[in-house]
Amino acid sequence: MNRLDSSAQGVYLITVTPFTDSGALDLASTDRMVDFCLEKGVTGLTVLGIMGEATKLTAEESRTFVKQVLARVNGKVPVVVGASAPGFAAMKELTDSVMDLGASGVMVAPPPSVRTDDQILSYFQMVDETLGAKVPWVLQDHPVSTTVQMSASVILRILKNSPTCVMLKHEDWPGLAKLSAIRAASDKGEVKRVSILTGNGGGLFLPEELTRGADGAMTGFAYPEMMVDVVAAHARGDRERAHDLFDAYLPLARYEQQAGVGLAVRKQLFQDRGVITSAFVRKPGPKLSDKDLADIALLVRRQDKRLRELA
């Protein structure tokens, strides 16, 4: 098993959950999606995230999907599973199940019910106790979806108190100053150094976040090769190339990040690329119009043109 640890870096792509046109799990498309991601060079995969429609799956469907992904990955890259749940019993049950199947770790976000700093700290102390000493976990900071604001100082206190928290999924927006503060604290030895993977707006600030000290990205985009190539260019010191590549994909990445319809756009692009058979989004979910599809086609054509120019 590729057990998650604080040295993690690169691109952990947050996957969609493929369905058939009737809404059933599509395990054949799941296999193609895993193969596609590996071919594009991702460092890891994250499943059952917010954009993975985790809340629309039954407990049995969640386990079936994770088992399929892990079997197809076959140890080639680490797989992180979203384990956020309203109660700790459900979190523990899912965590134990996926870790037994071979997951590398789990990801936990705070519930909307915690508001004060003390409540947040108490909650993640209970997360530590629930998951146990052998399960590495990712702290997900995504206030846009959770409505929970965690300051840099609170995150640093969580990291100090949680020996098995090995990664921060940084998704606050704006969040560059917070990222800088957390990385500066670890550089000074004030807190252990953990991996920081960003997901800010689907990677809309990826070059700047890498410059601020992020170790890579953990987010979704129908063109994972963008993140892979940008992270690689930045790692070898070619920041201009990293920005040029990022700029070429930015219009489509921005379009995919529209609130409400973003998942439908991403699934449509995956279908257009032959990765999944159906772009079906479970209810409640949006359906794209003919005008939406025309927008996507235009953006893809312009993106292809720009990439040819860069090559």
TrEMBL record:
Signal peptide: none annotated. This is Dihydrodipicolinate synthase family protein. It holds the Pfam family DHDPS. Belongs to the DapA family. GO terms for cellular component: cytosol. Pyruvate binds at residue 218. The keyword RNA-binding does not apply. Keywords: Lyase. The lineage of its organism: Bacteria, Pseudomonadati, Pseudomonadota, Betaproteobacteria, Burkholderiales.
